[in-house]
């Protein structure tokens, strides 16, 4: 720090304004702390501006187009469905603006000072911020790091925003590419690949592993894979892309597919092979912090790092990179700073993949429970036997409930099907509260609704199912 520069003293500095950072800032302010939130971009972070929200808007637009095209069997004939991607982008932008504007209003209403710029740690609990109008300095009592993550870039496929795209550029396309090659069969690749296939692109997905969505129960993935094939998506597993060249306006990708060389051609290439935590440019060494080999910071149950004055939350910490996890961690960090006995003690954190159909899981799988030495009982109910699913033409998929056999306590719920993202909320609450199979199936669920699949799967696990044949 240059001698003579004056640092503004503040109780809490939050670096990063995503769903972890802005929530932490608001909660700390609610608890009476003076808070400065530093963000080098628009508040809301990647999730609100270039990730969760924009992608779900694009996915919904694509689903709407696809539904219009395939409604003839219901007696609804729609001809000449056209997708105006510029208008889609304008609508998506309106959704994002409304939400980011809401966040800005909440920050202001809670007295949080927002500073736009890039933050860098200095000595003696000081932070320098490079703003458009020059350097500003803050001296903090506590700091919460919430700097998020960014797409992983493959050396052979550097992002150029025109031919080789990250999810950020793909979500900003104003024209539908005639063909799209997706490198990476994880959740981002499948979500965006599905959307563009519904818009009309010819989509190819290549995945290095033996299966799409590595780490997800293959029985759930199988339903998604079947629907991808219905959309005409080519799926290549055990495949690795090694390079590309551009000829005649197309990208020609060299790949090894199950030991056989292939050249795959497309108008755009979308690379979705994971995300990397943003911890490199903060000057962490100045405060005695060293990320691990993958860039993550270690934290305790209260989100405190090895430096007692600094907390870390969200994508820069271990665990799933989920916005709702970051928000909860932000609340914990803020409450600990305010002197509350708070810690990250969530029994289960749900995960959702917005494919077609959606996948949502929470808690343990049957295999995971058995690996922990538990004797389990499992119930399953198909959406094909659910009245509401059939009336909305969404009968693909099923719900599985895993419980401990001796006590009936629900250990996990796994859903692939319509509105799985919404249904998983009830399941998460049930696991958090220690609910049993009886709690599920003795609770009267409204009919006809999709939520009945949870009740029916629990009843199946308990041997009292009515709407499904008893398994031998």
From TrEMBL:
Which annotated residues bind FAD? Answer: 56, 147-149, 315, 321-324
**How does the cofactor attach, per the note?**
Binds 1 FAD per subunit.
Residues annotated for NAD(+) binding in this entry: 184-191, 207, 274
Active-site residues? 447 (proton acceptor)
Known catalysed reaction(s)? N(6)-[(R)-dihydrolipoyl]-L-lysyl-[protein] + NAD(+) = N(6)-[(R)-lipoyl]-L-lysyl-[protein] + NADH + H(+)
Question: What enzyme category does the UniProt record give?
Answer: oxidoreductase
Q: What InterPro entries does this protein map onto?
A: Class-I_Pyr_Nuc-Dis_Oxidored (IPR050151), FAD/NAD-bd_sf (IPR036188), FAD/NAD-binding_dom (IPR023753), FAD/NAD-linked_Rdtase_dimer_sf (IPR016156), Lipoamide_DH (IPR006258), Pyr_nuc-diS_OxRdtase (IPR001100), Pyr_nucl-diS_OxRdtase_dimer (IPR004099), Pyr_OxRdtase_I_AS (IPR012999)
Question: Where would I find the Pyridine nucleotide-disulphide oxidoreductase dimerisation domain in this sequence?
Answer: 349-458
The record's listing under PANTHER family reads: DIHYDROLIPOYL DEHYDROGENASE, DISULFIDE OXIDOREDUCTASE
| NCBIfam families tied to this protein | lipoamide_DH (TIGR01350)
The name on file for this protein is Dihydrolipoyl dehydrogenase
| Species, as recorded | Tumebacillus permanentifrigoris
């Amino acid at each position: 720090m240059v001698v003579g520069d004056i640092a503004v003293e503040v109780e809490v500095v939050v670096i990063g304004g995503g769903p972890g950072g802005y929530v932490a800032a608001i909660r700390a302010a609610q608890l009476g702390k003076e808070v400065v939130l530093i963000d080098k971009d628009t508040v809301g972070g990647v999730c609100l501006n270039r990730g969760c929200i924009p992608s779900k808007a694009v996915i919904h637009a694509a689903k709407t187009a696809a539904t219009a095209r395939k409604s003839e069997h219901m007696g609804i004939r729609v001809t000449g469905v056209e997708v105006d991607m510029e208008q889609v982008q304008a609508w998506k932008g309106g959704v994002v603006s409304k939400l980011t504007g809401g966040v800005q209003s909440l920050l202001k209403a809670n007295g949080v000072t927002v500073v736009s710029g890039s933050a860098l740690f200095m000595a003696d609990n000081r932070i320098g911020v490079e703003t458009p109008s020059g350097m500003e300095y803050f001296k903090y009592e506590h700091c919460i790091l919430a700097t998020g993550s960014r797409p992983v870039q493959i050396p052979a496929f550097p992002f150029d925003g025109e031919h080789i795209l990250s999810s950020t550029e793909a979500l900003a396309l104003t024209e539908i590419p005639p063909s799209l090659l997706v490198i990476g069969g994880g959740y981002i690749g499948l979500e965006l690949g599905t959307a563009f296939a519904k818009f009309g692109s010819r989509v190819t997905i290549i995945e290095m592993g033996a299966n799409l969505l590595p780490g997800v129960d293959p029985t759930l993935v199988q339903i998604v894979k079947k629907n991808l094939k219905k959309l005409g998506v080519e799926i290549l597993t055990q495949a690795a892309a090694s390079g590309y060249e551009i000829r005649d306006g197309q990208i020609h990708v060299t790949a090894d597919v199950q030991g056989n060389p292939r050249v795959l051609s497309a108008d755009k290439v979308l690379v979705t092979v994971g995300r990397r935590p943003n911890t490199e440019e903060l000057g962490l060494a100045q405060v005695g912090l060293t990320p691990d080999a993958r860039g993550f910071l270690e934290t305790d149950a209260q989100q405190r790092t090895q430096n007692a004055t600094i907390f870390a939350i969200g994508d820069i910490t271990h665990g799933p990179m989920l916005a709702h996890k970051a928000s909860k961690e932000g609340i914990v960090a803020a409450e600990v700073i305010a002197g509350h006995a708070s810690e990250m003690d969530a029994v289960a954190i749900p995960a959702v993949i917005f494919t077609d159909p959606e996948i949502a899981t929470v808690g343990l799988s049957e295999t995971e429970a058995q690996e922990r030495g538990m004797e389990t009982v499992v119930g399953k109910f198909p959406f094909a036997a659910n009245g509401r699913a059939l009336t909305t033409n969404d009968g693909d998929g099923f719900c599985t409930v895993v419980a401990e056999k001796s006590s009936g306590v629900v250990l996990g719920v796994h859903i692939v099907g319509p509105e799985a993202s919404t249904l998983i909320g009830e399941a998460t609450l049930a696991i958090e509260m220690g609910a049993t199979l009886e709690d599920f199936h003795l609770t009267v669920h409204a009919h006809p609704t999709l939520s009945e699949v949870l009740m029916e799967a629990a009843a199946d696990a308990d041997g009292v199912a009515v709407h499904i044949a008893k398994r031998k």
